[in-house]
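step=encode ok
step=design start
structure_in=
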């Protein structure tokens, strides 16, 4: 069983979330980011749940797979891993408090929390890859609902299958927003053959021309 863990937050990824485009970052802003990073690390409570299920005839354990992109990912796979990750409700309350008292800190901490949940996903993926080596199996890149043509409403089904509400306190609204907000769902494939990992980045996505994330200067792979 793989446990949720969080390692050091990536400073450059935090800058990306803040819309940094290579301009100088003043020492004062650097200090402010470091302070916010430490506060976020104090309040995040990483939790995850996952399930390893068979893939057959375009279905994950009887659950139809919608979207050409995710079908391509899982085409060579015999199994799939459904994953849900959250860093908890406590950091949400801290963010809301800062939105009232110090908006600048709130913006930076929001970026730090986004990096934190991706950090937990990355660490899980690394641990799972190491585990699968012992079985001579290989893992694909993770693929989240909303990326490419993988429907965002799949989040609700993934959370239902994983029973995230009871197990890690993660719910999905009627508009397919996750609560707590700093949460991620994803699918990963398992194959008997090594898999080329997908290139990350907007240029590989079928939604490149009409993406709302790009208009905000971020990407759904780090959202």
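sequence_out=
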């Amino acid at each position: 069983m793989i446990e949720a863990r969080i390692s050091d937050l990536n400073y450059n990824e935090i800058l990306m979330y803040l819309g940094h485009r290579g301009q100088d970052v003043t020492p004062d802003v650097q200090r402010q980011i470091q302070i916010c990073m430490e506060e976020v690390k104090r309040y995040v409570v990483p939790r995850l749940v996952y399930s390893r299920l068979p893939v057959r005839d375009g279905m994950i354990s009887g659950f139809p797979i919608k979207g050409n992109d995710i079908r391509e990912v899982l085409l060579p796979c015999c199994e799939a891993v459904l994953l849900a990750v959250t860093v908890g409700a406590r950091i949400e309350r801290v963010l809301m408090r800062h939105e009232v008292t110090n908006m600048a800190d709130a913006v930076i901490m929001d970026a730090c929390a986004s990096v934190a949940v991706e950090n937990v996903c990355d660490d899980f993926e690394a641990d799972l890859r190491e585990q699968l080596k012992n079985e001579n199996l290989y893992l694909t890149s993770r693929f989240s609902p909303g990326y490419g043509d993988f429907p965002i409403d799949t989040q609700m089904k993934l959370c239902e299958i994983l029973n995230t509400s009871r197990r890690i306190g993660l719910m999905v609204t009627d508009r397919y927003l996750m609560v707590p907000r700093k949460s991620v769902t994803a699918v990963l494939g398992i194959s008997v053959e090594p898999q080329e990992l997908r290139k990350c980045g907007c240029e590989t996505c079928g939604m490149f021309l009409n993406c709302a994330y790009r208009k905000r200067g971020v990407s759904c792979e780090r959202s």
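step=design ok
step=annotate ok -> The radius of gyration is 18 Å.
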